[in-house]
Design brief:
Elements: H1 3-36, H2 42-46, H3 52-80, H4 83-115, H5 119-128, H6 134-150, H7 160-163, H8 167-171, H9 193-198, H10 210-248
Helix pairs in contact: 1-3, 1-10, 3-4, 3-10, 4-10, 5-6
Length: about 250
């Protein structure tokens, strides 16, 4: 290849690596946001043993920062026009690429299992809510917070607590549903305890919480998986161009 054409290809490699470095840093930041779990819904996925969305986020934290560092190295190798350095860059990038593939696929497939429908979330809620175990306390706290903040009750609605057997019903038969399903005053006192107890719709949250839970976990999945896939496409194109550059180096 002519010297001028090789120089142009070098600048393309440098530019693509600069963009990929920025994308990797963004992936690193987004994955940290998911791993921190700002919506505090990890117990709902953790209790099932299907917390792969968060496992994928931890992998993406590593791959995002690794992409950033390796792309910086790739820029250095391209400017040096060194075949050995470019070879090291290509090998390391390919290894990181495989790890990020695992992260994105893991998060995407786990999301469908966890919130493909409300059955699993509902089953966990009925089994663990009110249970005097570590997992039970975590699930209870999570559901109480969600129901009070989102103003919802159960997975699909208050009827979940009536139609199915639950730990709550066995331990506290006084109420058909948790007190967190009851509407409250501005002082956080129950608006009408007796009305909520008998199920007056004016004193009870009637919508289910599943749509909220599904939307949050979908956001997490989009952040780890679909943004991860977009970074992978960019990295794949960068690797192809870098391989061409490596082949034409003397």
């Amino acid at each position: 290849m002519a010297a001028g054409a090789l120089t142009c290809l070098m600048f393309v490699v440098v530019a693509l690596n600069a963009i990929a470095a920025a994308a990797g840093l963004a992936l690193f930041a987004v994955a940290i946001w998911v791993a921190v779990d700002g919506y505090k819904l990890y117990p709902i996925s953790g209790v099932s043993g299907k917390d792969d969305i968060f496992a994928g986020a931890w992998i993406a934290i590593f791959t995002g920062f690794a992409f950033f560092l390796t792309c910086i190295f790739g820029i250095f190798a391209a400017l040096k026009r060194s075949r050995p350095l470019m070879l090291v860059y290509l090998i390391v990038m390919f290894i990181i690429f495989l790890f990020e593939c695992a992260s994105a696929i893991t998060a995407a497939t786990n999301r469908d299992y966890l919130v493909g429908n409300s059955h699993l979330v509902k089953k966990q809620m009925l089994e663990y809510y009110g249970q005097d175990t570590i997992q039970g306390k975590q699930i209870t706290q999570t559901w109480n917070r969600v129901m009070e903040q989102v103003e919802c009750c159960g997975a699909d609605g208050p009827q979940d607590w009536i139609l199915y057997n639950s730990t709550l019903k066995q331990m506290n038969p006084t109420y058909n549903w948790p007190l967190s399903c009851c509407k409250r005053r501005s002082t956080f006192e129950l608006q009408d305890p007796e009305g909520c107890k008998v199920g007056l719709t004016s004193t009870l949250f009637t919508k289910g919480c599943f749509n909220y839970i599904e939307s949050v976990l979908s956001r997490y999945t989009w952040a780890v998986s679909w943004y991860g896939f977009s970074v992978l496409m960019l990295v794949f194109f960068t690797l192809v161009i870098a391989m061409l550059y490596y082949m034409y180096l003397e």
